[in-house]
Amino acid sequence: MEITGCQVIGSTFTSAVLERARITDSVFRGCDLSGTILRGASFVRVEFVGCRMLGVTIPDGSFHDVRVTDCQMKMAVLRMARGARIAFDRCDLREADFYAARIDGLRLFDCDLTGAEFSQAALAGARLHGSRFDELKGAAYLRGVVIDSAQIVPMALQMFYGMGVKVDDERDPSGRA
Question: What span, in angstroms and rounded, lies between the C-alpha atoms of 9 and 14?
Fold first, then answer.
């Protein structure tokens, strides 16, 4: 399937299988792509606004100049995604899977990344400003990302957890002097 230069408004693609789809210079507004499988899809200059994309699966996807705004993407699978200049604004990405993703210029602004998977990802320079990232998996692979000052403690806790560091105020739990 190939979509070029289109405005797709309010369409439903629920559970569709669109392998190797090529989508260029298009906008998807208020669409439902929940459960859709887009294995090996290519997105160039594409925008998703206010879409429902629960469990969307886009493994091995290629993304260039893509913007995703106000979308519900809980449990989205973006395993081994590659590309440049992808921006997610105010998206629900809880439990999303970014395993082994290679993305230059990734922006995750004001997103909920609770429980997201980042193992083996290469996202140096990614900006996570305003995003929530409790219970991350593979937090150690977020080397080189940029966060804002309000995220220092939450990020530190994720890193400590990943390294097995425990915080315990009891100096000598055995009670020996």
Answer: 14
Separation of alpha carbons 112 and 92, rounded Å: 5
In angstroms, the CA 168 to CA 170 distance is 6
**H/E stretch holding 27:** strand 22-29
Structure tokens at 151: 């995220």
Contacts of 44 (CB under 8 A, 6+ apart): 23, 24, 25, 64, 65, 66
For 110, the token pair is 């004001």
Question: Which residue's structure tokens are 């804002």?
Answer: 148
d(CA 98, CA 39): 14
Token readout for 71 is 């979308």
66 pairs with which residues across the strands?
A: 46, 86
Condensed to tens digits (0 to 9), the pLDDT of residues 88-129 reads 999 999 999 999 999 999 999 999 999 999 999 999 899 999
Element (H, E) at 42: strand 42-49
